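S.,

Sequence below, as promised.
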Amino acid sequence: MDMVEAPLGRREKRKQEIRARIEEAAYQLFKDSGIEETSIEQICERADVARRTFYGYFPNKQALLGGLGISRLYSQSEPMLRELTTNFDTTRGRLEAMIDYIEATFAGYQDIDRKLILNAPSAFAHRPEEQKQLGDSSISSFSRLIRAGREMGDVNTEFSPEILATIVVGTLNTLTMSWAIDDSYPIFAKLEEARLIFERLICRGN
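The prediction came back faster than expected:
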């Protein structure tokens, strides 16, 4: 079963491109100069957007920080799972590659990424419904991967795809937040444990 994404309209694609430009400019400035030392004016200049454009996407710098943190917690799951579904033929292979992908992502993270992840909850302070939507979207993506495995006959049928997906998403989010809070947290050892748990819980033939 392929994961099909509806094509974006030209206007929506343009909006996403501008938002991505603002976020990338801010990320580089935060990394190079520090969060407190970076102004909205500097972000606008680097992103080549007007201040009014910036405020059309983010009401303030704190909201931008939260948005960058959210992208590290949620926004990568859908493209990652599409890639896994395309490139690997078994659920076991997809889960193995998923952990490899996540480990490679953490290997590239820096101290600024910890700070951004810790800022993510603040973005939901007055928008709990958005937090629920993002969480539900991640669970839905993993549920589709598990259902695809059921159709291939290589996934355990004892538990529903939704509860298995909830376990996967909850585990990965907890590991990520633990790493962000504690710079001595053994994230790679914990991801290897998660690899074994996911395979034993989800895959047939263990």
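Confidence is low (pLDDT under 50) at residues 1-6.

Coffee later?
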